[in-house]
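Hello support,

Our group uses your service weekly, and this is the first time we've seen a run hang past the timeout. The protein is Sulfurtransferase TusC. I'm not sure whether the cause is the sequence or the server load. Input pasted verbatim:
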Amino acid sequence: MNRVAFVFTRAPHGSSAGREGLDAALATGALSESIGLFFIGDGVLQLMPGQQPEIILSRHHAATFGVLALYDIEHCYISREALRERGLAEEGARIMDVGILDAAALQQQLATYDSIITF
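Update from on-call engineer: The timeout came from a worker crash unrelated to the input. Re-ran successfully.
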């Protein structure tokens, strides 16, 4: 079984990395039985609700995260430290359900994947 992890490290605006990562995860989801999404660093901002990308003429992909379950992508994790560093509450609202992991647990979980692709 080929397990693929996608690591999101960038904020949702100012770069297309988040959108490209999500597109790659969805495409890979059709080929692999085990996909994991990890949100670290500024990547945790990808999951914040209430973003208004149209104001800055950006195309954010927040709504697309809702289709992950249709692709059997159910393993999603967010960095506890990254949330704290950005002043975001662990129990705060997000556009999708994610497991909150500390750095050691996140590294341990990432180590279970055969391939890791970072966006």
